[in-house]
Input
Amino acid sequence: MKEATATVYGHTQRNLLAFGESKRLDEISPGDSDNFRVHLKTQQELAENTVRRRMGIAKQFFRAAARKKIIAENPFDGQPTLVRENPKRFYFISREEAEAVLDACPDAQWRLVFALCRYGGLRCGSEVAWLKWEDVNWEKMRFTVYSSKTEHHADAGIRVMPIFQGNGIG
Output
């Protein structure tokens, strides 16, 4: 399990303690899972998609317990867990805005990071940080990107990206 996944699971584990540390798994009912959803929304004040994600992780925990015969049934079955698209969070950064950000970057390294994310579609942080000079093929004008987030997919999280001539980055 990756560190970020462990952190996310830890948030759900911490939230599940709202049932009480002494409550047994086999005492948690579907009604309790309904109350847990309300707790996440009202007491924790989490957004709907965060609630759905935490409910899904709780469902996963309890599914494991049911498969191991620790509990007879999963009290989280039937809970909505599918994370939905949130159009309010979509925002297209225009070329003008991108150029303004590039102009505001303090140095070439910051301009490169921004350009790789904005124009290359790399994930800021993980994919940019993993880039190495040996991943750049100047002859073919390509570079290889490794994604720990998608390494379990058929392509092993590896993709080859074109290098385009541009201005304002270096």
About this structure: The first strand starts at residue 136 and ends at 137. Residues 48-67 form the longest helix (20 residues).
